[in-house]
Amino acid sequence: MKVHHVTGGGGLRLHVREWGNEDAPSIFFIHGWSQNHLCWKNQYESTLADDFRLVALDLRGHGMSDAPLEAEHYTEPQLWADDIAAVIDQLDLRSPVLVGWSYAGFIICDYLRAYGIAHVAAINFVGGAITLNKAAFGTMIGSGFLDHVIGATSDDLPSNIEAIRNFVRGCTYSQLPSEVFEMAICWNMAVPAKIRAALLAREIDSDEVLTTLAVPVLMTQGQEDTVVLPAMGRRLLALCPGATASWYSATGHAPFLENPIRFNNELYHFARDAHSGVAAPARAYFSRHEK
């Protein structure tokens, strides 16, 4: 494992870790709202590291990256785009496959809007969010998030702890092992409530980015996801008609935690095909799981 400090948008220092063979094709993991790189443990400690260079970022305001409290550090899409571009450029990732969980769907679209696809081999949206507005609440963003957002963005510590416990529990359909659940609460609580709130102060429409997307796309979605609803995944598929869908039954918002063996196998084939120049992943890998 190597640790890097990357200078992101506006000069913010970003914490990045990598595993695997630095000469191999790269996979760039981008976590969601209130998370950090630790959520990808089942991926970077897997056999994926044998054949790929695995890179995981702590987003601005999260984990071990700089975390200024002022909202303007989180509401400007160009800053998020610059962060992703900085990691790709400063670590010389050479056209990574982007894997974005939840809120990272917004960030990937920020990057694509600003920088295009020239330095990206493919994209895996994992419970990926692409629309943020009032109309999305209850239709594409569900109770697993909405029921806890007030407490999670409150400065009242007891309310904050209760909301994060319930949010983490609601991210999965089946109960996580106690040590994983406890660790997830810890890394969620490391993010200040003001920063969680600032991330939600945006209104985001990614339609124009996704309708013109000309790289392979894999949409990974839990059928029992109550945080980012399956309707969000179906919207992404409608906007990206060439995308491949991988639906996980009896799975919530975190397929990579709930079913890491399947997730890693599908990501392996998807990334291998993308880096070898195959136009789209072989549907046989996913057809038995499609909804």
UniProtKB/TrEMBL annotation:
Kindly indicate whether the keyword Lipid biosynthesis belongs to this entry: no
Residue ranges of the AB hydrolase-1 domain?
A: 27-264
Keyword Hydrolase found: yes
Keywords from the UniProt entry: Hydrolase, Plasmid
Q: Show which residues constitute the signal peptide.
A: none
Q: Got a GO cellular component term for this one?
A: membrane
Q: Molecular function terms in GO for this entry? A: hydrolase activity
Name listed for the protein in its UniProt record: Alpha/beta hydrolase fold protein
Instruction: Specify the taxonomic lineage.
Output: Bacteria, Pseudomonadati, Pseudomonadota, Alphaproteobacteria, Hyphomicrobiales
